[in-house]
UniProtKB/TrEMBL annotation:
InterPro entries given in the database record: LysR-type_TF_proteobact-type, LysR_HTH_N, LysR_subst-bd, WH-like_DNA-bd_sf, WH_DNA-bd_sf
Keyword DNA-binding found: yes
The protein, known as: LysR family glycine cleavage system transcriptional activator
Keyword Secreted on entry: no
Matching Pfam families: HTH_1, LysR_substrate
Keyword field: DNA-binding, Transcription, Transcription regulation
Domain (HTH lysR-type) ranges: 7-64
Length: 298
């Protein structure tokens, strides 16, 4: 049976409130309706059922026998609906799914996400990493941290950090040619992923717009983190975001031979669907990022 066609469901909600409060006036106050509107909905339900549900006396209403039988069952039904919605909300607010790149996940989130979980013990975190920009209409998730221009339709975005890049390599590889003294020295070494669009941008910034850096096979590892691992292993020069590799520099695994950095105009942004900006878990993560990143901007 299709209840939406057989019964006026709004009238059932009005009846539940009036029966619980034993007052049309109080039911109207609870539901944001006038007493006249409450009376109309009750009469509509009575006409549908073919039974009077209330005895109307001056300044007082009481339930009929039919009303007394119906009231607890309707209250129970609405409580079940409320519990179901509340449970779904609790479950959806209990896990924060973050989509980002493997590089950002391993070199920033891995160092800070524990603090978020300590501050928000009721929220579990699930990380999803990929090189593609997530489509929230097709993929389950809450927030994304991505490199780009920050202009994605339907998304609320917050600037996190610049995305400057520069060549980095292992100290041993640099010493293998007697050290790196000028940008042109990098051309003596194998370039990791010479097809990376960052390379011509950086060489132009370094004063070598016509540099021939495609001096070996073009290996593409698919993620900056893999390029960094290859550079640490001494397999060549990688172009990386230096902010992500400060620990490797401090430990002597990588060096940044030049202070010259470049940018292709893409920066890191926190993004999430505009319609979900008031989600409690998204608000918690947004404020966490605001606190942890001095460069955070709305």
């Amino acid at each position: 049976m299709n209840l939406s066609r057989q019964f006026p469901l709004n009238a059932l909600r009005v009846f539940e409130s009036a029966a619980r409060l034993m007052s049309f006036t109080k039911a109207g106050e609870e539901l944001g309706m006038t007493q006249t509107a409450v009376s109309y909905q009750i009469k509509l339900l009575e006409d549908t059922l073919g039974e009077p549900l209330f005895l109307r006396r001056p300044r007082q209403v009481t339930l009929t026998e039919a009303g007394e039988k119906l009231a607890p069952k309707i209250s129970e039904a609405f409580q079940a609906i409320s519990d179901a919605i509340g449970g779904m909300r609790d479950q959806s607010e209990g896990t924060l799914t973050i989509h980002t790149t493997a590089t950002f996940a391993s070199h920033w989130l891995a160092h800070h996400i524990g603090t978020f979980q300590v501050e928000n013990p009721g929220i579990a975190v699930r990380l999803e990493t990929s090189q593609t920009v997530v489509d929230f209409s097709r993929t389950e998730g809450d927030v994304a941290i991505r490199s780009g221009k920050g202009t994605w339709p339907g998304m609320k975005t917050h600037f996190l950090m610049t995305s400057d890049f520069t060549p980095m390599l292992s100290p041993a590889l640099a010493q293998s040619i007697g050290g790196i003294r000028e940008p042109a020295d990098l051309l003596k070494l194998r370039i990791i992923d010479p097809d990376d669009v960052w390379w011509p941008v950086w060489f132009a910034a370094a004063g070598l717009p016509d540099a021939d850096f495609r001096n070996g096979p073009s290996s593409q590892f698919g993620a900056q983190a893999f390029h960094a691992a290859a550079a640490i292993a001494g397999q060549g020069v990688a172009i990386l975001r230096p902010d992500f590799y400060k620990d490797d520099v401090a430990l002597g695994r990588l060096i940044q031979p030049f202070d010259i950095t470049a940018s292709d105009g893409s920066d890191y942004w926190l993004a999430y669907p505009e319609a979900r900006r008031n989600s409690l878990k998204i608000r918690a993560f947004r404020e966490f990022m605001r606190k942890m990143m001095p460069t955070f901007r709305d």
